[in-house]
Specification:
Bound molecules: flavin-adenine dinucleotide, iron/sulfur cluster
Number of strands: 17
Distance between the termini: 39 Å
Strand order of the largest sheet: 8-7-9-10-14-15-6-16
Shape: globular
Helix content: 25-40%
Length: 436
């Protein structure tokens, strides 16, 4: 397969000036919200599409300069890892797991955090420790919507109680960066907790706007197998015969590791599915396409990333909660040490990259496949992101020509039948074109 030698690219539309809608229609948008924040919500608004994806809908003209800034910031168009300045002689670089300084098994020192959180509560414990120790003013992350608990909203937490309320994994669409530019204007320090693609967006934005590193002091990521469309959650409602407006709680996991998916209604009924009932059948995951070509789902750009550590990748039952903790930067190492010293975090033992392979076989497979999938998209004439630093070409080569061809051809065939692209997001105003 000769195409594997060529360089990845994202050029925008060839015929005309790049448009935000090109990112969406080429299947590259994950709905992080950054473009709304850059363009302003009077021009671009994140919208839930009929397919159950959060996507930017343009409602007024956007200046060419803002479109360019979006293209440079969007995690659908540019994906990299840590800036060079964060890597030094104490960094190790694993071909699959990227740069790291240490890898550990850990969990929250506070039992309530450990119980309520998605896994062992490492993200919540670190975020709480940052607030308690005055290292940041607030945490930017996501939480269940108060009035529509199946949906997820961006959350600012100023207290440890607020951080704890937002603990847990939200598997549907989430747009944590929907007003990040406006948050920078507050001139307050904060830490970010989110998916690897969200961290990519922040790293991209930091290249253009020095305020990102000035105010966003820590960037933390959850290792991520992919975000589902809202339809996945709707399927759960349908299974139980519940209407969304009757819900008072939609918890995807937590309260044990992994804990059940639990729904409660305003009239006091409750319903549960085990993790394996939710995720046992991959055909029902309804993953967004961007996730299938995700060059960094393991938080390579984060100071610290946290994962599950189930042998083979699936839980065999509930336990007290143990995270894989990948510390990637000096700043992350200092934060980890400070949290351990304060008792906020318990570290139980060391891990290595090959242990992580065993816990995350799906991440290894994806990392090996992504380059070839992008080549399949290119072959079909679709736009692909610019990917740097993430070793995906080397990993594809190491996985062998036959596998690479299979992945590229599979993606090419899916592209031909429209499975790798998305309809434009339309409103009555969507005929407006960007001003260039
Ligand atoms: C869509 C998705 C897919 C995942 N896939 C994997 C996987 O393949 N392998 C694996 O090891 N782990 C995966 N996880 C991560 C895992 O569920 C835990 O989040 C992780 O182990 C951290 O656990 P914790 O107990 O430290 O998190 P917690 O202490 O519960 O903190 C979780 C934090 O993540 C934030 N968050 C939750 N959902 C989202 C979201 N959708 N977007 C942005 N921020 C969010 C919350 O606001 C909270 O601050 C996934 C999580 C999600 C949301
Ligand atoms: S990935 Fe984020 S920045 Fe890119 S188009 Fe989608 S919402 Fe906008
Ligand atoms: S798989 Fe990648 S693109 Fe999809 S939600 Fe996770 S980090 Fe984002």
């Amino acid at each position: 397969m000769d195409k594997i030698e060529t360089k990845s690219r994202f050029t925008g539309s060839n015929e005309s000036a790049p448009k935000i809608s090109d990112i969406v229609s080429n299947g590259l948008c994950i709905g992080c919200g950054l473009c709304e924040s850059i363009a302003g919500s009077q021009n671009v608004q994140m919208t839930m599409t009929p397919e159950g994806r959060l996507r930017p809908m343009q409602i007024a003209p956007v200046q060419a300069e803002a479109v360019q800034q979006i293209y440079r910031g969007c995690p659908g168009t540019r994906i990299g890892g840590l800036p060079d300045s964060e890597i030094d002689e104490n960094s190790k670089i694993d071909p699959v797991w990227g740069p790291y300084r240490r890898m550990d098994v850990g969990y929250a020192g506070d039992e309530q955090i450990r119980y309520k959180a998605a896994t062992g509560g490492v993200m919540t414990a670190l975020a709480s420790h940052l607030l308690d120790s005055g290292k940041v003013d607030f945490i930017l992350h996501v939480a269940a919507s108060a009035d529509k608990p199946m949906r997820t909203e961006r959350q600012l937490s100023f207290t440890t109680a607020q951080v704890l309320d937002a603990a847990g994994s939200r598997y549907g669409p989430a747009a944590p960066l929907v007003d990040v530019m406006q948050l920078l204007e507050r001139k307050q320090t904060f830490a970010f907790v989110g998916k690897p693609c969200d961290v990519t967006a922040l790293r991209n934005l930091a290249e253009q706007d020095p305020r990102v590193d000035q105010y966003c002091r820590y960037k933390m990521a959850i290792v991520c197998g992919g975000a589902s469309e809202l339809g996945k959650s709707q399927d759960v409602l349908d299974d139980f015969g519940i209407r969304e407006q009757d819900l008072s709680l939609f918890r995807y996991r937590g309260h044990g590791n992994p804990g059940a998916t639990r729904l409660e209604t305003k009239n006091g009924r409750s319903f549960e599915k085990t993790y394996n009932e939710m995720w046992g059948d991959e055909a029902g995951w309804r993953l967004q396409f961007r996730c299938k070509i995700c060059a960094d789902a393991i938080g390579e750009g984060a100071d610290i990333a946290a994962s599950d550590i189930w042998p083979g990748g699936d839980p065999s039952g509930d336990d007290a909660g143990f995270n894989g903790v990948i510390t990637r930067t000096k700043k992350g190492e200092e934060l980890l040490a400070s949290a351990i010293e304060a008792g906020a975090l318990i570290i139980e033992g060391e891990l290595g990259p090959r242990d992580m392979d065993g816990f995350q076989p799906h991440q290894v497979r994806k990392k090996q496949a992504v380059w070839s999938r992008l080549k399949g998209l290119e072959r079909a004439g679709q736009l692909v992101p610019e990917v740097t630093q993430l070793r995906i070409q080397e990993l594809a080569k190491a996985a062998g020509t036959e596998r690479a061809e299979h992945e590229a051809e599979g993606t090419y065939q899916r592209a031909l039948i429209g499975k790798t692209s998305e309809p434009e997001v339309r409103s009555e105003l969507s005929s407006l074109t960007e001003k260039v």
